[in-house]
What does this fold into?
Amino acid sequence: LQYLVKWSGYSARESTWVDEFNITEDLIRAFERGVSAANFSTEELVAAADTITFAVQKKLRARLFIGEGFQCQRDILMCWFGDKPRTRGAWTLDRKDFPENYFLPGWDRVLDKFGQGPEVIFPITLRPT
It folds into this structure.
């Protein structure tokens, strides 16, 4: 993951891409705090949650490892999880970290008619793609 850095005292043309490992955590947090739910329509947030839910349930049905990457707008993930600590660009998340108003009950499991089936084992690691 890289950030485009506008250097103080230099023109915008002299901005450079910098690896996140070369930027302090404080600067990254300050930048990411600027992303909020107000930047997105309800439809965009619901669509992003649906995309993650569909990907999780597809992998559960196939009994595959959930993995780390989901095709989801990075800014929306920052809106939901930006205040959570990250390691190497990935969040380690618990069920309670997923906003209930977008992730409906049962989003993290696939049950048959007997109420049995695979479910996500938390915590999970989520890395924006």
User: Anything to note?
Assistant: Residues 32 and 82 are 6 Å apart (CA to CA).
